[in-house]
Amino acid sequence: MNKPLWLDNYDLNNFPQLTNDLETDVLVIGGGITGITTAYLLGEEGYRVTLVEAEKLLHGTTGHTTAKVTLQHSLVYKTLIKKHGINKAQAYKDSHIIAFNLIKDNIKNLEINCDYETVTSYVYTESDKYINNIEKEYEASQKLGINSFITENLSLPYKVKCALGFKEQAHFHVVKYLTPLIDDFSKNDDCYIFEKSKVFKVKEDNNMCHTYFTSGVKVKSRHVVVASHYPVNDPHNFYFTKLKPSMTYLISAKYNVEFENADYINVEKPIRSIRTHPYNDERLILIGGENHQCGHTRPDVKHYSNLENFGKKHFAIEEPLYRFSTQDFYTFDNLPYIGKINPKSPQIIVATGYKKWGMLTSHVAAILARDLITNKNTEYEKLYKPTRITDKLSCKFFSYNLKSVGRLVGGRLKKMPKEFDVSCLLKHQMPKEFDVSEGMGKIVSYKGKKYGVYKDENSEVFIVNVVCPHLKCILTFNNEHKTYDCPCHGSRFTYKGKYLDGPAIKNLERINFRDL
Ligand code: FES
């Protein structure tokens, strides 16, 4: 089924929509792991906190991950030392250890049963080409005092050339972990959660934040934490120029091969991220990978099938019980953006750019947000400052944004289609260009404009304007997700045109074919 493992068979409480103006100390925007943890920590500090979510808590990126709790973020430490120096690499590691300890403390203090398992986390290669990279990463990890080792002997059912293991890492059931935090937070006086409450603007004025919702209500607060995955308050901060969106796909299935219960990820492409998880009296394997930049996949590439074939070949998996996918954002210097959104709006804090390692980095963000709001001294403010800029960063920004401009211009200069036979319209028939099989979608050029068309299982056809509401790139259709994806900065929309993620914020315009 196309549903995430973590959200199946799990009853989450429903929370009301925000229908009245409100005043609070801190407004947290985004009901994922960062928002919930931040709200929980600030509630513990005695702040009046309101947590708002545009849809439903935990149903965004948080509910669609591998839920690995690890300091091993593929090959990151060698790069951090090279780009930022040993002190900053050390600070990155230390801040993630503090985050790890917070997770362990929460589990202990709230007696959370979340299938937490301590495991070794491996990054490995099957190719001679990457052995040196792994050896260098091992040296970097040793310099930083990480409990790591190098080996050629993994119990995976295929031969690896070299692997780096980090001991005493973990994985868990992310929804089971966060639900008690939500419950505990809700018990605080003057702390509230609202769902189906979508923010469209945050302004700071005279040290007060004013947040406006699409429903017309507003919230006044001393601080705002924007934990909405992609920062909701982007128009004046240009995060779209410094965040690169990337999609990942996951399947979960029963399997029939014995191997060490651990976390695995390879270095080479295609990426394969592997772990197992208890499921009734058995275990399921989770296999993730097939990463690609949002809006940059070919219709003939079957990402879920590729994962399934890999699983069948090596782990004798059965038909997958779950298929799900998610998008995350990369920064250009391997460090997330966590902190004051800009120097003129210090009361607004943003957290984004976790590059798919959000279980721990979310907690780094929550701790830093709490410390900034409570005026605690924090050595990590400078490290993760969202407005930082370096030479290397500038070059990468330039190249990425140049490509985005190319997509924008290229999408608009494509050859105009031939005039359409108007007789179809007179007969109120769907133009033949819009023919598509059930369960499929595509982009259509028609009378000089681009449209997206999708036909559902009941043969109902949905047509949308595929000009991205953000900066007007032409969207692509992703038949695996049934979404329209923006190749420029990663905005995503359902086939009905509903906004899902990214800087666009608005829905796509729905088109009636009679109005074409
Ligand atoms: Fe920027 Fe679509 S997200 S143009």
Describe this structure in words.
With about 525 residues, the chain is α+β, with helices and mostly antiparallel strands. The protein is built from ten helices and 25 strands. Strands 3, 4, 5, 6, 11, 12, 13, 14 and 15 form a nine-stranded mixed sheet that branches. Strands 1, 2, 7, 8, 9, 10, 16 and 17 form an eight-stranded mixed sheet that branches. A four-stranded antiparallel sheet has the order 18-19-20-25, with no helix packed on it. Helix 2 crosses helix 3 and helix 2 packs across helix 4. The protein starts with about 20 loop residues before the first strand and ends in a 5-residue tail after the last strand. The chain binds FE2/S2 (inorganic) cluster. FE2/S2 (inorganic) cluster (FES) binds next to loops.
Query: What is the structural class?
Result: alpha+beta
Helix content: 25-40%
Task: Report the span from N to C terminus.
Answer: 35 Å
Taken as a percent bin, the fraction of beta residues is: 25-35%
Poorly predicted parts: 413-427
Distinct small-molecule ligands in the complex = FE2/S2 (inorganic) cluster
- Secondary structure tally: strands: 25
Q: Biggest β-sheet, characterized?
A: 9 strands, mixed
Mean residue pLDDT = 90
Q: Report the C-alpha radius of gyration, rounded.
A: 23 Å
Shape: globular
Please count the helical segments: 10
